[in-house]
Amino acid sequence: MQMDGRGWGVWSLSSSSFIMGTGSSILSALQDLFWLSKSKVEKQLQIISVLQWVLTFLIMGIACTLILMYILCTDCWAIAALYLAWLVFDWNTPKKGGRRSQWVRNWAIWRYFRDYFPIRLVKTHNLLTTRNYIFGYHPHGIMGLGAFCNFSTEATGVSQKFPGIRPYLATLAGNFRMPILRDYLMSGGICPVNRDSIDYILSKNGSGNAIIIVVGGAAESLNCTPGKNSVTLRNRKGFVKLALRHGADLVPVYSFGENEVYKQVIFEEGSWGRWVQKKFQKHIGFAPCIFHGRGLFSSNTWGLLPYSKPITTVVGEPITIPKIDNPSQKEVDFYHSVYVDSLIKLFDKYKGRFGLPETEVLEVN
């Protein structure tokens, strides 16, 4: 009995140790699994956040138009009719500064969007709230992802970095003719890139406004490719003339990495492909690009998702611009050259910090 007791005691002790050890191992494994799952969930949320914006950029306007037309042909036609009546009443709102929503700009989805690449906003100088500004954003890239994340959301803290400054990202006016899409864009502080809209913001909306214009536009997007730093700027002077007419300071902005997130088929000048692109650009305002990123489920396949490459947007030093109601061509040319020099200096100063060799040169076309 004593031996049995001692044997039972030894067996009990060994069993307890085994159970405790196994329990600890299982707990450790579960903890590892939990953290792994959390990491995977965050990555999937990042992918979803970027995918919804890509689909918004590519098809939301057309899709919402078709859906609205379909609803008009159903028993729910009154809903579509009410929206169309509202659309007529609200038609000029985009030209008057839009209708931004801080709630939308602060959605958590934009933070996942930011972390997918990731995207950073770098401030180099303070901006006075008593002045208005025109930011020249370079380069365009395929979709201007850095411009959207930094200035149409609060994901990178633009309002904290530049307190008292209201950013307005300017995009194609045609987007604001699309039902639903127009309201979605306005909620982020996006406005049409036309004279009426810009004149209103810079002259009838007080001070502390900053309009972000992607100066190179569609023409620049046709030449963007990984490893290339070039901007279409040499003959783009309209934004300088607007700045002079309103006395709005010019601010050069360069986004390192914007061209790295998509790969594009570049058509040579004189080719049929480039001819088609230029025709679209001339008559519609945008140029169709043949591009690809990564797949939805694997980075080793092709798809519409951008590659997760870092994008760092550097906001340069403001250039003080005088107010001249009718600037001469000589005055426009002078301040345009000052702007170009300032952009090149900004690029040269920060290129080494964000992965480019010191020998890299910004190509200005």
Question: In a nutshell, what does this entry contain?
Answer:
With 365 residues, the protein is an alpha/beta fold. Helix content is 47%, strand content 14%.
Structure description:
Pfam families: DAGAT. Belongs to the diacylglycerol acyltransferase family. Helices cover 47% and strands 14% of the residues. The chain is of the alpha/beta class and 365 residues long. The strands form 3 sheets. Strands 1-11-7-2-5-3-4 form a 7-stranded mixed β-sheet, with helices on both faces. It has a 3-stranded antiparallel β-sheet with strand order 8-9-10, with no helix packed on it. Strands 6-12 form a two-stranded parallel ribbon. Helix 1 packs across helix 2. The protein is globular, with a radius of gyration of 27 Å. The N and C termini lie far apart (98 Å). Mean pLDDT is 89; it is low at 1-23.
Keywords:
365 residues, alpha/beta, seven-stranded mixed β-sheet, three-stranded antiparallel β-sheet, 12 helices, 12 strands, cytoplasm, diacylglycerol O-acyltransferase activity, membrane, transmembrane helix, transferase
